[in-house]
Design a protein that fits this description.
globular, F-box-like_dom_sf, Neuraminidase, SCF_F-box_component, 8 helices, four-stranded antiparallel β-sheet, mainly beta, 459 residues, 2 domains, nine-stranded antiparallel β-sheet, 27 strands
Length: 459
């Protein structure tokens, strides 16, 4: 794991004192049981990744299965990455995590992804991405408990490969392709993914939910992959109150084993329903929450559900602010708290104002074009991402790299450090679309193997 460039320079300035403490000779005579029982367990996984270079003993001990099972990070980090981006030859991006308590940013190197095999349509052999002349697109589909679900897809062609990876240990498992099951394999447009990792990290489940016409679609495009089974199986068709078949899921939010979503229905009038899907029982439930019918709900740029400190919210960012006072409030964010008991939503009124112009620049869809970088806006891709933290904050981050936080206890806006690498990644990056992110702890445990693994060997 690599810290951001600014933090790396600061640590270089402190290298003199660190060099004495981290001298390998100090640790040579220290008993391994002392290291395993007294020293290493009190370190955060972030620090273990940084200190594993102290000596070979540390690196070996840290990756031993027994130690990996005993160490568990209770500190969730905010993960941010491009939702999807196109990759040319030898191009790659990085994952970034942030400790929201200290606002320190760290980069997770993902160059190992370039060595993973990719499915080929006309051959049973694998093809190494690093040697391919044709561009591909990488999408981040879901994440949970330290694992990330990633999709490789050819820019021109139907070939796709799905991986579940651990960005810390670089372990991975290749998932059987869904191409043969889905009539339309446009994963990034018509389907939404969510992942549930078991608490013991010994298994995981992937859920694929069709975005449009959930109940009355001719093709059942709701699938589950269980790593214990090793194959895809169909999910039950959801049942809703209305008879109309025109549905759209606006956003998915996973909280433990429950997946919350807005269901937009289009009939004579447009209505909104807040529904929840139980991943254990495969049952949909209409929560019957009274969602406010404020003006132009559908025309707002992006609606997102957010969970923070055990409470449920939804956010909407608007294109214009009727109370515009330059330079504050050029664009406005609305936050509503969902009360599942009273079945109502209460608007959260802020006690202060903050300059949000950095989040909502007019030319944000072509930010920093002069540097050869370009962000494009794709249907359903958030240019502003809302993530709830456990300490009662909702963090808003945009593709420009700017961030602000809303403190729920005081109902006030707070400034945040910008994301160093969210700024579109490498200068030679071809295209980067939207943001993907969530709060999750890190783990040293490997990605569990599937019951019927796809043979994939990294040379």
């Amino acid at each position: 794991m690599k810290p951001s460039p600014g933090r790396r320079r600061q640590r270089l300035a402190e290298a003199t004192s660190d060099a004495v403490v981290m001298d390998e000779r100090i640790w040579k005579k220290l008993e391994e049981d002392v290291l395993l029982d007294k020293v290493l367990p009190i370190m955060e996984i972030r620090d273990l990744c940084r200190f594993r270079a102290v000596c070979k003993r540390w690196s070996r001990l840290i990756y031993e299965p027994e130690f990996a099972k005993s160490i568990k990070s209770d500190v969730p980090y905010m993960l941010i990455a491009a939702e999807k981006f196109n990759l040319g030859r030898r191009h790659y991006d990085k994952w970034e995590i942030c400790d929201t308590r200290t606002q320190e940013h760290y980069l997770l190197d993902d160059s190992f992804m370039n060595r993973l095999p990719m499915n080929r349509q006309r051959s049973t052999d694998t093809e190494i991405l690093f040697d391919r002349p044709r561009q591909s697109m990488r999408s981040h589909l879901a994440a949970d408990k330290g694992f990330i679900c990633v999709l490789w897809r050819r820019e021109y062609g139907p070939d796709t490969t799905i991986y579940v990876v651990n960005p810390i240990t670089k372990s991975f498992q290749q998932i059987p392709s869904l191409d043969s099951k889905l009539a339309d394999s446009s994963y990034d447009r018509n389907f939404r993914f969510t992942m549930v990792v078991a608490d013991d990290h010994l298994s995981f489940k992937l859920f694929v939910l069709q975005e449009l016409c959930l109940e009355f679609s001719n093709d059942n495009s709701r699938y589950l992959f269980d790593s214990k089974v090793g194959s895809w199986q169909e999910l039950a068709r959801p049942s809703f109150k209305t008879d109309s078949g025109q549905y759209r899921m606006c956003h998915l939010l996973k909280v433990n084993n429950m997946v919350y979503t807005f269901i937009m229905t289009y009939d004579q009038t447009t209505s909104r329903e807040l529904s929840v899907y139980n991943t254990d029982t495969d049952i949909w439930t209409d929560l019957e929450v009274e969602i406010p019918n404020f003006r132009d709900f559908l025309q707002r740029r992006f609606k997102q559900l957010v969970a923070s400190a055990g409470r449920l919210f939804f956010t909407v960012w608007e294109e214009k602010d009727p109370n515009y006072v330059p330079p504050l409030g050029r664009q406005r964010i609305q936050i509503w708290e969902v009360d599942l008991v009273s079945k109502k939503c209460e608007k959260v009124e802020p006690t202060n104002r903050i300059d949000l112009s950095g989040l909502f620049e007019f030319e944000i869809s072509h930010a920093r074009r002069g540097n050869g970088r370009c962000v494009i806006n794709v249907y359903g891709s958030p240019k502003v991402l809302a993530i709830g933290t456990d300490d009662g904050c909702i963090v808003f981050t945009s593709v420009s790299g700017s961030s602000v936080a809303f403190r729920l206890s005081t109902r006030s806006w707070e400034p945040m450090h910008d994301w160093p690498s969210v700024d579109l990644g490498r200068p030679d990056q071809a295209r980067r679309v939207g943001l993907f992110g969530c709060m999750m702890p890190l783990t040293l445990l490997p990605v569990p193997s599937v019951a019927e693994p796809v043979h994939a060997v990294v040379p």
